[in-house]
Amino acid sequence: MKKFIETIKNIWSIEDLRNRILTTLLLTLIYRAGSYITLPGINPNSLKALGEAGSKGILGLFNMFAGGSFARASIFALGIMPYISASIAIQLLTIAVPYFQKLQKEGESGRKKINQYTRVLTVFVTGFQAFAYVAYIKTQFAGAMIANYGPLLFIITTTVLLTAGTLFVMWLGEKITDKGIGNGTSIIIMVGILARLPQALLQEISTRASEGPGGWLKFLVELTAFVFITIGMILLVQGTRRVPVNYAKRIIGNKQFGGVRQFIPLKVNAAGVMPIIFAQAIMFIPATVIGFAASADAASGFMRIFSDHTNPWYNVIYAVLVIVFTYFYTALMFNPNEMANEMKRNNGFIPGIKPGEATANYIGAVMDRITLPGAFFLAFIGILPGLAAATSMNTAFATFFGGTSLLIMVGVILDTLQQIESQLLMRHYDGMMSTGRIQGRTTTTPAAGF
């Protein structure tokens, strides 16, 4: 405890770090305040039905990423999701389109152009989603609209405000990245998720308290399970396989370059949270299509599978999709050929492996082997909320027992701690852990160019 207090004092004594933390807190506070400002033309007292709809299916996923703004019909109802969608689309284009591949290799100037394309695409994506959101409210929740507010005026003002709101949230994220402690977009998503935790915890406590002494014992077991699940999640996020790389010794003048062993840290979960998000989106499609069908009774059995996340068949299909998407997304984001070529250009080689194609095959084989257990564990994490809800746990609290919520929170918190620790170590202070460094994040020195 004494070391922790001393670390907090060190953090506060560094003016630059203190200003960055305060800036981050201020910007996230602005974001949370804006998430409670209701759109003009909507009666805030009539949003109960929208809130219930916003807690289920694909809308529940949007509502989670928007920090509850979707269900409150706020000016930040679309949150940061349109920017995330645009970023993923541009990221995929850098793999498939030569022009974007060239931009990616141009360094800082190329990165600025890619960011500009991402912002422009965000405007179009947000405009489309804003119009769809307006149509959704008018069709399903017309009672929430103020009667004397003109329909055309509502469409125009709501579309403009939602687009402006998303662009403002995107600006907040970029400012947190530049002026704050970094990872602005991720911090905004994490803050929205964490905002739901106190209420979910209180609901679970209230439910267990009404069950008497046996309920408190169940709650203690749930907290213990939550701690162990979080530990397992940290291991998944931080887990790496270090591939040794030697660099040829070069002597230029009186100085020696290279001749040292470094490591390429290959992550066990290189795909991050994307496989779970993709799998959830796919699982929502059948229920959405059947919901528009003329006769839902004819497919009631099919509906039960894809609309009940506690159903065994739902969890089996969901787990398989997570495993498939883990390999798919890892293959998109991880390029062993480019890595091998970069090593060859820098006179690096893996001991016992020939440079070039043999190195690429070796790195690809290692990545396939470590992705398998990572994919299975990620699938298990993905179905945990459904398993937890099946044990009579409160649904809101069960969503934190794995899945997207916990994975994002753990990943972002670890990244944020690593950013703060880097600032401390750079100024010759002790790190935030007793060992002086957060393990598994930046403990290894990757090869040049990665």
From TrEMBL:
Its main location: membrane. One of its GO terms (biological process) is protein targeting. It is a multi-pass membrane protein. Keywords: Cell membrane, Membrane, Protein transport, Translocation, Transmembrane, Transmembrane helix, Transport. It comes from the Bacteria. It is found in: Cell membrane; Membrane. The chain crosses the membrane at residues 21-39, 75-100, 120-137, 149-173, 180-197, 217-237, 271-296, 316-335, 370-390, 396-417. GO terms for cellular component: plasma membrane. Component of the Sec protein translocase complex. Heterotrimer consisting of SecY, SecE and SecG subunits. The heterotrimers can form oligomers, although 1 heterotrimer is thought to be able to translocate proteins. Interacts with the ribosome. Interacts with SecDF, and other proteins may be involved. Interacts with SecA. The central subunit of the protein translocation channel SecYEG. Consists of two halves formed by TMs 1-5 and 6-10. These two domains form a lateral gate at the front which open onto the bilayer between TMs 2 and 7, and are clamped together by SecE at the back. The channel is closed by both a pore ring composed of hydrophobic SecY resides and a short helix (helix 2A) on the extracellular side of the membrane which forms a plug. The plug probably moves laterally to allow the channel to open. The ring and the pore may move independently. Belongs to the SecY/SEC61-alpha family. This is Protein translocase subunit SecY. It comes from Chitinophaga costaii. The gene is secY.
